[in-house]
Amino acid sequence: MSHVLIVDDDAETRDSLAALARAEGFTTATAGSIAEARIQLVRQKPDVVLMDLQLPDGSGIDLFDDLEDRSSVETILITGHASVESAVEALRLGASDYLVKPVNVQRLKAVLSRVPRSGELRAEIGQLRDELRRFGRFGRLVGRSPAMQEVYDRIARVAPTEATVLLMGESGTGKEIVARTIHDLSRRRKQPFLAINCGAISPNLIENEMFGHERGSYTGADRQHKGYFEQAHGGTLFLDEITEMPLELQVRLLRVLETGELMRIGTTRPIDTDVRIIAATNRDPREAVRAGKLREDLFHRLNVFPLAMAPLRERGEDIELIATYFLEEMNEACGTRKQFAPGALARMRQHPWAGNVRELKNYIHRVFIMAGDDGLEGPSPETEPMQTRPFITSQDTSTPVITVPLGTPLSVAARELILHTLEHCGGERKRTAEMLGICTKTLYNRLREYGIREQQHAGMGDASRAP
Question: Most-buried pick from 40, 221, 279, 342 (CB within 10 A)?
Answer without folding.
Answer: 279
